[in-house]
Amino acid sequence: MLAISTKNLSKFYGEQVGIKDVNLEVNQGEIFGFVGPNGSGKSTAIRTFLGLLKPTSGSASILGQDIDSEGAELRKKIGYLPSEVHYYEEMSSLELLNYHARFYDNVDVSKIHELAEYFELQLDRKITDLSFGNKKKCAIIQAIVHKPELLILDEPTSGLDPLMQNRFFELLEKENENGTTIFFSSHILSEVQRLCDRAAVIRNGEIIAVENIQDLLMKQMKKVTLIFKEQQLDLKIPSGCQHKKWHNKKLTFDYVGPIDLLVDWMSQQELIDAVLEEPDLESIFMNYYER
Length: 291
What we know:
Elements: E1 2-13, E2 16-27, E3 31-35, H1 42-49, E4 57-62, E5 65-66, H2 71-74, E6 78-81, H3 93-101, H4 110-118, H5 132-144, E7 150-154, H6 162-177, E8 181-186, H7 189-195, E9 198-203, E10 206-212, H8 213-218, E11 221-228, E12 241-247, E13 250-256, H9 259-267, E14 271-277, H10 281-289
Parallel strand pairs: 3-8, 3-9, 6-7, 7-8
Antiparallel strand pairs: 1-2, 1-4, 4-5, 9-10, 11-13, 11-14, 12-13
């Protein structure tokens, strides 16, 4: 049984495309990435296959059940963390989380306190007094506390400092080891690389690829800046280098290919300095998938 399955799922706002013909299959027990630049359709896709938006066409099922006809019961098995959270501001975090727990059967409320301590969240403070990061911690606890079979996370790390991000990733890895399927939507490639085995790439509302992460890394573009002792306009550079530009003794280019070949070539040059950078996600996929 698949954790998530969509067939030609589309959502239009008048003539504007939200998502178009999205076909996804997410296996139970995996951590699946959903990546693309902001505005690419990630949140619309999630809200549509959760049944929070009515699709224009196509269908979706979660944990083998149809989201349209069985959505109310099905959502009890799902933990959902939206990209932006809005709460009853006069409630405290504890009041909010206890209120949330009553929607589910047999929630161990001691888990609320355990997770709050883990994320250093003060449960007695009102929502209105919380920073964006602390509201996000509250949302994470809300998504996890009822032990869902499927976690759907939409840009979950925004607002978290690096320490809390690391704790969050460790918690997700532990939940996955205990059998939870995780659907992880992000525009930050490094997060997807750390957690996921596979990822779907979405742009302009359409799935343009579903890739094994290790295969994706082999195709990932690097921005390379090299400073030579002397300018060498006739320098032979490795295959996979594109957009070569000299500025005095500085050479810049984009590189797609095995990193060990590039490093080996660099070791043979007379360099003063070298910088390899990961470009933004949109640049990576625009570079690779339009070639």
